[in-house]
Amino acid sequence: MKTQIIEKKTKSIVIQVEIPLSNSMLDMEEKIQEALSKFRLESEHDGLPKLDTDIERPVQ
User: Fold this and answer.
1) N or C: which end of the chain has fewer CB within 10 A?
2) Measured CA angle at 55 (ends 57, 14), to 5 deg
3) Who contacts 38 (Cβ-Cβ below 8 Å, separation ≥6)?
4) What percent of the chain is helix, strand and coil (3-state, nearest 5)?
5) Going along 1-60, which residue ranges are E strands?
6) What is the pLDDT of residues 10-43, one digit of tens each?
């Protein structure tokens, strides 16, 4: 499973998510949730500095 930020724009990002197919609907749902969680963490890490109003103490 792979998530990747393809393009960064001023107010948006373009992502690509690769999720392996399975014969089990439950397994596929879990893989989709894992990919979305992984991407959420990556995009929040990338977006937080833009929201930081205290430049002297960056968001950790």
Assistant:
1) C
2) 110
3) 1, 3
4) 45, 20, 35
5) 2-8, 13-18
6) 788 788 888 888 899 999 999 889 888 887 877 7
Neighbours of 31 (CB within 10 A): 17
Which pair of structure tokens corresponds to residue 34? 């894992």
Residue with tokens 């960056």: 58
Question: Going by C-beta distance under 8 Å and a sequence separation of 6 or more, which residues neighbour residue 44?
Answer: none
- What is the residue whose two structure tokens read 């929201």? 51
The secondary structure element, H or E, covering residue 57 is none
User: pTM of the full predicted structure?
Assistant: 0.56
